[in-house]
Amino acid sequence: MELLDRYLQAVKKFLPSRRQDDIIAELRANTESQLEDKEAELGRPLTATEAGDWLKQMGAPMMVAARYQPQQYLIGPAIFPIYLYVLRRVILWAFVIYAIVTAVLISFVSSNSTSVIDSVLRIPGILITVAAWVTAVFAAIEFFAVRYPEKCPQIAGLSGAWSPSTLPPLEKAPPTGRKPRSFAQAVAEIVFGLFFLGWLLLIPRQLFLIMGRGAFYWNASPFQFANAWMTFFWWAVALSVAQLVWRCVDLIRGTWQQSARVQRMTIQAIGLVPLGLLLSLPGRLYVTLKHPALDQLQYGSTLDTINKNIHSGVLFICAIVALQLAFDIGKIALDAYRKRATIQ
Asked: Of 209, 228, 221, 231, which is closest to residue 281 (Cα–Cα)?
C-alpha cells in the first residue's frame, strides 16, 4: 500500500541512521501483519479513508520514531527527533553563512594567510555556540511542556491532529547497483563546496592558490592575463554559488537522496556560456603584454604561442562539457523511451 510506504518513509527520516533499515523492516512486518488482520476481519481491502484513519491511530511519524531513540534526560523522546532535525540544519546553515561571509571578507578586505587561519579556527566555537542555543531552546520547551502541558500549544507532527494526507510522496528508487546518498554525504558535498567557493574567491589576489610557485615567475614576467578572465571568473563564482544553494535546498527539503542528474546537467549547460565567451574572444587574446610598445618585438612570438595553446585548451574543455551534456540528455531520452515501451 502506497500510503503505508509513505508513512514508513516519513518515520525513517527520524530514526538513528545505523538502525534505520532494521527498524523499518520490523515496523513494516508488524504493520503489514496488522493490515492483513484488519482486512481479513472486514473481508475486503481498506479504503483510502479507512487506511488513513488506521495510520492516524498508529501515531505521527515523529512519535513512532521517538520510541526507538535512546533515553534522553535533557530533552525527552517526544521532541528529541525534531530537536535533532532542527539542530542539524541550524548548524549547517550557520556554517554556510559564516563560510560565505568570511570568504567574501577575506577576498575583498584582508587576503593574508593569518586571516584565513584565524577564520578557520573560529568555526568550532561558533558551531558549539549555535548548538548550545538550540539545545537551550528545546530544553526550555521540554521543561514547560512537562510542567505546564495545558498552557503549551501542541507541536505540529507530534500531536494527534496530524493527517496521513500530509505525508510526502514516495521518493524515486535509486538506479540499480547504486546506493542513495546519505545525509553525511550530502553535508560533506556542501562543506567541500563552501571550501571550494572560498578558495575560488581568493584566487584574484592570491594566484599561488592555482599556479603555485609559478605565480611568482608570472608576476615577474612581461605577460598579464586579459580582462576577459575576470568575466569568466565571476561566471565560475556564480555557478559555484548556484550549485551550493541548490544542494542546501535539497538538504532542507530532504531530497538529497534523489538523483543529481538534472542539477549536473543544468550547471553544465550554463557553464558552456562562459566557455563560449572565451572561445569567441576577439583576436583570441587571453594573455597580453604589460608594456606592448617595449616588449612586442622580443616577446611577440611567445605571446602568440601562449594564446594559441590556451585557445586549444579552452576548446578541448568545451568539447568535453558539451559531449558530457549530450550523453546525459541521450541517457534521459533512452530511459524515457524504455519506460514508455514497458508501459505499452
From this structure: 228
Give per-residue pLDDT as tens, 283-311. 888 888 888 888 888 888 988 998 999 88
Give this prediction's pTM: 0.54
Give the position of cell 534522553: 72
Rounded to the nearest 10 degrees, what angle do helices 2-12 and 20-42 cross at?
150
d(CA 4, CA 45) in angstroms, rounded, equals 13
Select from 211, 193, 83 the least CA-distant residue to 145.
Answer: 83
What is the Cα 124 distance to its own chain's centre? 21
Tally the C-alpha atoms within 13 A of residue 49's C-alpha that lie toward its C-beta. Answer: 0
* Centroid of chain to Cα 41: 47
The single-letter code of the amino acid at 231 is T
**pLDDT for 81-137, tens place per residue?**
777 778 877 887 787 777 777 766 666 555 555 666 677 777 788 888 888 888 888
Domain ranges in the chain are 1-55, 73-157, 183-203+220-343
206: left (phi over 0), alpha (psi -120 to 50) or beta: beta
Q: How far apart are CA 10 and CA 49, in angstroms?
A: 19
**Separation of alpha carbons 20 and 13, rounded Å:** 8
Q: How far is CA 301 from CA 285, 288, 307, in A?
A: 13, 12, 10
Q: How far is CA 74 from CA 44, 68, 135, 209, 310, in A?
A: 47, 17, 9, 46, 61
Rounded distance, CA 64 to CA 46, Å?
22
The answer to whether 36 and 23 are in contact (CB under 8 A) is no
- Say if CB 75 and CB 135 are below 8 A apart: yes
The DSSP output letter for 192 is H
